[in-house]
Design brief:
Layout (H helix, E strand, L loop, with lengths): L2 H9 L6 E5 L3 H15 L8 E4 L5 H9 L8 E6 L12 H9 L5 E7 L8 H9 L1 E4 L9 H10 L3 E2 L1 H12 L6 H14 L4 E2 L1 H7 L4 H13 L3 H13 L4 H23 L4 H8 L3 H11 L4 H20 L6 H10 L1
Parallel strand pairs: 1-4, 1-5, 2-3, 3-4, 6-7
Helix pairs in contact: 1-2, 3-4, 4-5, 7-9, 10-11, 10-12, 11-16, 12-14, 12-15, 13-14, 15-16
């Protein structure tokens, strides 16, 4: 069960005695755990929680779950442990399974793991049968729309079409999407303006510190083969103190996307198939398709090689940031 559905279950008071929070997206895992504890611990007394980490043994957890609470109505056990699902623990897990199948009514057991779980394991299937599994999967730019809409509802804001597409386009340039960072940045909209509607300039001002924002226009200019605008923006970025490697990273990602799209165009993929294959929301894919059609695939391949060499030279100090200017000119030629 993904985050949104799992949160809905909590809000509907469909509570379980057993929870598994699994996955590497720490922001979603922490947010779900916080919401769950607020529901089952309305007085928010964290002293009522029995906490265990990787050092906990299965026997430790069984004993904690089986102990009657004396001063609280509920026995809450939270275990952050990646070892429970390792193959080395399989020979000890039958006792644990016996507990899960017969969890005392006075206990709520919450297990957290950062690992991607093997759903074929008996332990996983038992937890799925008797409890609720929340998968904290990484969010990518192509599947972040629902999270963004939920976040805007949470802060009482409504972006117009232009601003929402601008935000998605910007996020698509991020090598890795950090929900925790985006959450904090979008919270600033509540302080930035009293208006309910969100406009493109609002997002530009809020997110102006992101290198992805500052280099976004540069990548777009290169993709459009607008060499004059690209060189102007490059000079502006460098003079503003933006790290050349940050610019290079975003430009490389953009050119790689164009190369992939050009490859699939050559195999007669349509826009929807390209969007799914490359991992882009459709309107971004359509925009990049228009850019990719301006290049031949050899130019894009050579650009990727040149950008990789520039990355090495910049990181080893054997090249000046001006090297980017030459690469941009060659790409746009």
């Amino acid at each position: 069960m993904l985050y949104g559905e799992a949160i809905t279950q909590i809000k509907k008071n469909n509570l379980k005695n057993l929870y598994l929070i699994a996955g590497e997206e720490k922001y979603l895992a922490d947010k779900f755990l916080k919401a769950l504890l607020q529901k089952i611990l309305p007085d928010n007394n964290i002293n009522d929680i029995n906490k265990f980490d990787n050092n906990a043994t299965i026997n430790d957890i069984i004993e904690a779950c089986s102990s009657m609470p004396f001063f609280t109505a509920k026995n809450i056990v939270v275990v952050h442990n990646n070892n429970l699902f390792n193959k080395n623990s399989e020979k000890h897990e039958q006792h644990f399974i016996d507990l899960l199948e017969n969890m005392p009514d006075f206990t709520t057991l919450i297990i957290e793991t950062d690992e991607k779980l093997d759903k074929r394991r008996k332990l996983y299937k038992i937890i799925d049968k008797y409890g609720l599994i929340m998968e904290a999967l990484p969010v990518r730019s192509y599947n972040i729309s629902e999270w963004l809409k939920s976040k805007f509802r949470e802060i009482g804001k409504q972006p117009d079409t232009e601003s929402f597409q601008y935000l998605l386009s910007t996020i698509s340039l991020m090598p890795q999407v950090s929900l925790g960072f985006l959450d904090k940045e979008l919270d600033k909209l509540s302080l930035y303006s009293d208006r309910r509607d969100v406009r493109k300039n609002d997002l530009i001002n809020i997110l102006s510190g992101l290198p992805e924002i500052s280099a976004f226009a540069l990548a777009e200019a290169v993709g459009s083969k607008d060499v004059s605008q690209a060189l102007f923006l490059l000079e502006k970025e460098l003079n503003s103190g933006v790290n050349a490697i940050s610019i290079l990273t975003i430009l490389t990602r953009h050119i790689r996307q164009l190369w992939k799209i050009k490859y699939y165009l050559g195999r007669h993929f349509n826009a929807n198939d390209i969007a799914k294959t490359v991992g882009l929301v459709p309107f971004i894919a359509e925009k990049l398709i228009r850019q990719a059609q301006k290049f031949n695939i050899q130019t894009l391949q050579q650009a990727i090689i040149a950008l990789a060499e520039a990355d090495y030279q910049l990181k080893t100090g054997t090249a000046a940031p001006a090297l980017l200017e030459d690469i941009i000119i060659r790409i746009c030629r």
